[in-house]
C-alpha cells in the first residue's frame, strides 16, 4: 500500500515521454536525462555499455545540478521527498544520492514506476468493489454532470468519470483544447480518486459506457455499478436540455456543419433522410432545433437501449425530475438526494 500523501514532493526522474504516458498524480518531472539523451544512451548501450554509462552519468549530473538550482533550492529542508524512475534503478539512485547528500529526507520508490503500475492494475481489480454506488441515469443533456457537481459541493462522495477522462462521453464529447489523459494516466487518476473515498458511504456516479472517448473504464467498476448500484432515473425538460447543450457545446454553435459531419456514420442507424434533416438545420443555423432533433432521433433512443442493457432494474428506479439546471435549482435537489440515499 503506497502512501504518497506522506510526501511533500514526488520527483519522477524519467524522461518527458515516459512522464507524459503516466506518472504518480502530483509528481513533478525532473528528468535525469531528457528524451533525446535517453534515446542516445539507450542506443549506445547496445554496443558499448561502459561508454553509455559514462555519457549517461555526465548528462545526469548536469541535469540534476540544474534542477537543484531551479527547483529544489526553494524547497524547505524539512520536506520529505520521494523519487522514482522506471524500475527503481540508476536514475532514481542518482537523484537519491544528490538529495540525501544535501540533507533532505528522501525515499526511493521500490520497483519504480513499473512496480507502481502493477499496483494500480491490482487495485483497480479490487478497490471499485469495496463501494456501493448511486448511479445517475438519464438522457444526454439532462444535467447529470451538473447534479454531480452540486452533490460534491454538498459533501457527497462523487466520482466524476467524465472530468477525470476530460471528455463528455459521447461521439461529440471531446473538449476543445483539452487532450484526454492516456489510458494509464486515467487509471492513475481514477485510483487516486477512489482512494479518497470511504466504503461506509455511497459513491455517486453517472451511468457510463465502457469507454469515455479514448479511455476505458475498469471492468470491476462497471460490473459493480451494474450489479449492485442504486439507480436513479434523471430527466429534465427538453428546453433545459437544449440550453445545457448550447453551453457545453458552444463551439458547435459557430460550426454546426462539422457537428453533423461527425455524425454521418450514423446513417445506418437513423437513415439518410434524418441525416439530411440535420444538414438542413445546420445550414440554416437553427441550432436549438438541430440539438433537439439530434437528441430525439439518435441520442435518447441510443442511451435508453444501452442503459437498459446495463441496468436491469432501470424501469423500477426512482425518478428525479429536474425542472431547471442552474446551480441554485440543483442545490436543493442535491440536498434532498443526500438525505434520502446517502
From TrEMBL:
Pfam families: AAA_SelU, Rhodanese. SMART domains: RHOD. InterPro entries: AAA_SelU (IPR058840), P-loop_NTPase (IPR027417), Rhodanese-like_dom (IPR001763), Rhodanese-like_dom_sf (IPR036873), SelU (IPR017582), Thiosulphate_STrfase_CS (IPR001307). One of its GO terms (biological process) is tRNA wobble uridine modification. It comes from the Bacteria. GO terms for molecular function: thiosulfate-cyanide sulfurtransferase activity; tRNA 2-selenouridine synthase activity. Gene3D superfamilies: Rhodanese-like domain (3.40.250.10). Residues 9-122 form the Rhodanese domain. Keywords: Plasmid, Selenium. This is tRNA 2-selenouridine(34) synthase MnmH. The gene is mnmH.
